[in-house]
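pasting for the record
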Amino acid sequence: MSKLGVFMEEELRSQPEMWDQAADLAASSSARPADGERIAVIGCGTSWFGAQVFASLRESLGKGETDAFTASEFPAARSYDRVITISRSGTTTEVVAALDGLRDRVPVTSILGVEDSPIGQRSTHVVDLGFADERSVVQTRFGTSSIVALRAWLDQTEELAEAASEARSVLEGVAADFAEVDPAVIDETLLSAEQFSFLGMGWTWGLANEAALKLRESAQAWTESYSSMEYRHGPIAIAAPGRVSWQFGEPPAGLREQVEATGARFEYADRDPLADLVRLHVLALLRARRAGVDPDNPRSLSRSVVLGG
């Protein structure tokens, strides 16, 4: 098998260890937002989807009003107690511009892969996840480690320990060189499927968005993502034999039966949804290699989007 995506291979396999470090770091960090603060979380791409995860989960746990925005759409005139940014590179143009627009009116906490960076320099507090930084353009461990740090702020210690254990179990089903994989983890139907619709509810909707992005950018696959309940308001029309509807988190009543009636495969695993995202990472790498594309250097993409004036 081709060794395309060698960095992605190494980085996705290291995720459980990265999660342990991220959870410990975030839990003890002075950058932690206080319960009851009104917060906006901003990022781009994978970081935006991590923001969606945190915003939904924080509100559902009664920790405070939390909004998630892609950085270019951040409403700078709106009043918040704190702004949180997520950025692997610390250089993303839209995030830098959003922070410049704040003009130091509000505390900024940033989760970064590079602390000494333009975003870091504009932040009040930094959670330095440099240990989870990556060489692959396609993010795996930094994105999930950011989500772990955010969930640690929500006192999900036990849930995160279980997620790391389940992610290790997934990875144990993959050969060291990725040449073979346990069919209970990834089978031929998933490897050869024509199209994927990723679904989630509440905080797992952000994971569904991230899964669709990951498989699309790494393997040039045809992917979409929806709220699980919204899927039946039109998008289910795309479900058909040879296609997959992949649910993150507990599915709503009746959805499996409706998807399977179309002839499509309904995919759901009873594990922490973040651990199931690791399984999706494995699928993305395997499909990229089959397609002869390199997720470390995908077409039209770079490590950070830095726009010219």
